[in-house]
Amino acid sequence: MEPDEPGEALTELRERRLGALGLLQAAAGSGLAAYAVWALLLQPGFRAVPLRLQVPYVGASARQVEHVLTLLRGRPGKTVDLGSGDGRIVLAAHRCGLRPALGYELNPWLVGLARLHAWRAGCAGSVRFCCQDLWKVNLRDCHNVSVFLAPSVLPLLEDKLQAELPEGARVVSGRFPLPTWQPVAVLGEGLDRVWAYDVHSGSPAGQVPPGPSSASVPGAPTSPAG
After folding, report:
1. Which of 37, 41, 113, 188 is least surrounded by Cβ atoms within 10 Å, i.e. has the fewest?
2. Given a cut of 70, is residue 83 above it in pLDDT?
3. Which residue stretches of 41-132 are H helix?
């Protein structure tokens, strides 16, 4: 048996090496798959946008969508979702009567996915998804705006909203509040929290003027200024 022992040991060592190589190959394959998902679904279009304005896609949760609709339900005028992703907020807005509803999304793969969801929901002809940079969208006829963006771009977004939104427009920001505007209503907890801001004449956009007009949305908890 002794002469066979070196051969057996060599065979065992080779098997171990093959096992380690298999693990390495699996890890490399997983990394390649993750990169492929990023390259196909998240990266397209980002090259044309300055790094400081890029916002990665993270889909809104069902609770977040519910809170957005609570703060917008019953309002007239066009509803837009800036960075609409797979279209879930736009479709939910259409279903609850916020019409017309449309989304702006830079990633063509996500725009295609949103259109597929609309087709499957039977409302492909009633909602619109535009493959367009949200920073180049004209908001002058938009009365209801939903945003789920990163904190780093919110100061710039405030400037755009203040310059373009019409009188009486409402902005609902999810996950993170606008840095200097004062909300008229806050709903939810933690990452599911959303903030509502109204654009008033006679005061900076997002600032609540004194008097009865500063009342919050019926049925939604209010947040004190500041």
Report:
1. 37
2. yes
3. 62-72, 88-95, 108-120
